[in-house]
Design brief:
heterodimer; A: about 250 residues; alpha/beta; Rossmann fold; 2 domains; 6-stranded mixed beta sheet; 4-stranded antiparallel beta sheet; 10 strands; B: about 300 residues; mainly alpha; ABC transporter involved in vitamin B12 uptake, BtuC; globular
């Protein structure tokens, strides 16, 4: 298994936001993470990406324990993410945002730049070329030079996905990538997610759009009040009485 | 205008020209940390370390000036490492206060150090600084900052300034970059301190008080911190302004001292209110304003 969560806990004061979660994500798999508001999905992504420390339990990438590592180390091992409340660098252009995302793949020794060595310029134009290609892949090629803060909500989400892909991650964490998008945009994101998985990246997808989750995910884990209440294929999860109870309220 | 008048003019203003360069260096030392979003106010302390290091080496060890300047860059840069490791974990105003504390500790250390004559400081330092050294140093620092911009490291610094946690999840080692810029700023401040000490014949703790670092910060803000040369523009503007004011003041019969403080405060206020990106953004602002006027005139 590529990504493995073992008995993961996180408490905030008396609140158990994540309470003994365990599941696994295989290489090249799209793994959905769903649950009602406040179920602990975003907290879980923050734990995996190193923005929060777990109160207990562990996260493994391959067989390397990553939950005590700084977030830039976790990114370097191949886990990158997007944010539910978009966190692009607002003053940078769309292309420059993606270029920042490529930080880990770039080599650009400053001393060579100080001496105007020709290899540096080649590296820079190659990196910019890759950034523009990624923007084209998310359908944002024509907006590459625009400041991130001037982009629409849906456009910002797509740039954020391109930025997260720019380092060539093994695991991509997407936190509600289609929030605020129209159906056509959602369809294009669904296609993008499948394409990313086909290219060998694993995707852990937090999403409220049930149709999207059912369409693109290979497996789904359902959280409620920080606990896993179901885990399986989309068909299994959709038929699970505990899931139906959590979403619609239990029948008496 | 004959040759004598030109010589007189140069003699009158050559120290002002030197101060423009020195203040430009000091403003850049504050900018180094600001470029990745960190407000460090330890620069007067770093400047003091550089100035005292250089003065001691010149007066007591009679070392060549090149060696003296090198040591004045290295000592504060090395001190910045153990200072930065703990304090750069702090954010915003907390970092500012911790670094102010460092500056005061350095100043009070030299007030109480008998070896450097306490509060009197070291006097009769031979004059070694030439104008070309100041502007050579300024050119080197500007060159380095220019080459950082647009590089992988330059983008990392911008990302840290915009959103540090997000930058970290892109794999950017934010603490290392912040520390590197603090060390760079400390080295620049030390360099300016050494050049200043060997221009003015003396170093004394009172030159490195809190108000000194506030001056540096004001240069950077007035000039603009969105581009690397902004702080130098601000330093030049605010250093030359009193000279202009003195001329104007003497004609209308005003005392230069109070007028200078008043106008400095006014300039800062106006820039913060109307030019948040500093004086360097003025041309673009004016162009935008003129264009909107023109299009309004067309519409009418």
């Amino acid at each position: 298994m590529l990504l493995r969560l073992e008995d993961l806990h996180r408490t905030f004061g008396g609140l158990r936001a994540v309470d003994g979660v365990r599941f696994e994500v295989a290489a090249g798999e799209v793994h959905g993470l769903i649950g009602p508001n406040g179920a602990g999905k975003t907290t879980l992504l923050n734990l995996v990406s190193g923005l929060l420390r777990p109160s207990g339990g562990s996260v493994f990438l391959d067989d390397l324990r990553i939950d005590r590592l700084a977030s830039h180390r976790i990114a370097a091992l191949g886990v990158t993410r997007t944010y539910q409340n978009i966190r692009l660098f607002p003053a940078l252009s769309a292309a420059d945002n993606v270029l920042v995302g490529a930080h880990l793949r770039r080599v650009d020794p400053l001393w060579k730049r100080m001496l105007f060595l020709p290899g540096v310029r080649r590296e820079e134009s190659a990196a910019r070329g890759r950034a523009l290609a990624l923007l084209a892949r998310v359908g944002m090629a024509d907006r590459a030079g625009e400041r991130a803060s001037n982009l629409s909500y849906g456009e910002q989400r797509r740039v954020e996905i391109a930025r997260a892909l720019a380092s060539g991650p093994r695991v991509l964490l997407l936190d509600e990538p289609t929030a605020g998008m129209n159906p056509a945009e959602v369809a294009s994101i669904a296609g993008l997610i499948r394409e990313v998985a086909r290219a060998g990246h694993s995707v852990l997808l937090v999403e409220h759009n049930v149709k999207l989750v059912m369409d693109v995910c290979d497996r789904i884990t359902v959280l409620n009040f920080g606990k896993v209440i179901a885990d399986g294929t989309p068909a299994q999860v959709a038929a699970d009485p505990a899931v139906i109870a959590a979403y619609l309220g239990a029948e008496r | 205008m004959n040759l004598q008048a030109l010589t007189d003019l140069w003699l009158t203003y050559q120290s002002t020209v030197a101060f423009v360069g020195l203040n430009g260096l000091l403003a850049l030392s504050v900018y180094a940390s600001l470029s990745c979003g960190q407000l460090s106010l330890a620069q007067a302390g770093f400047m003091a370390l550089g100035a005292y290091t250089s003065a001691i080496l010149t007066v007591h060890a009679q070392l060549p000036f090149a060696v003296v300047v090198l040591a004045a860059v290295l000592v504060p840069a090395l001190v910045a490492v153990p200072l930065g490791l703990p304090v750069l974990r702090l954010r915003g105003v907390f970092l500012a206060i911790a670094t102010i504390g460092f500056g005061e500790v350095v100043r009070i250390f030299f007030v109480n150090l008998d070896y450097t004559n306490g509060a009197l400081g070291i006097v009769a330092i031979p004059r070694r600084t030439q104008l070309w050294m100041i502007y050579g140093a300024l050119a080197v620092v500007l060159f380095v900052l220019w080459r950082i911009r647009g590089s992988r490291a330059g983008y990392a610094l911008e990302a840290i300034r915009e959103d540090e946690p997000a930058a970290r999840t892109m794999g950017i080692h934010a603490s290392a970059y912040k520390l590197a810029m603090l060390v760079l700023g400390a080295g620049i401040a030390g360099l300016a301190g050494a050049l200043d000490a060997h221009l003015n014949f003396m170093v004394a703790p009172s030159s490195y008080s809190f108000s000194r670092v506030v001056d540096m910060l004001v240069y950077a803000i007035v000039g603009g911190t969105s581009v690397f040369y902004g702080p130098v523009v601000g330093a030049a503007f605010l250093t030359l302004l009193p000279e202009v004011l003195r001329e104007v003041g003497s004609r209308v019969g005003l005392q230069p001292g109070p007028l200078r403080l008043f106008v400095n405060g006014l300039v800062l206020l106006l820039v913060i209110l109307f030019l948040p990106n500093g004086l360097v953004s003025l041309p673009r602002r004016l162009r935008g304003w003129l264009e909107s006027r023109r299009s309004a005139a067309h519409a009418a």
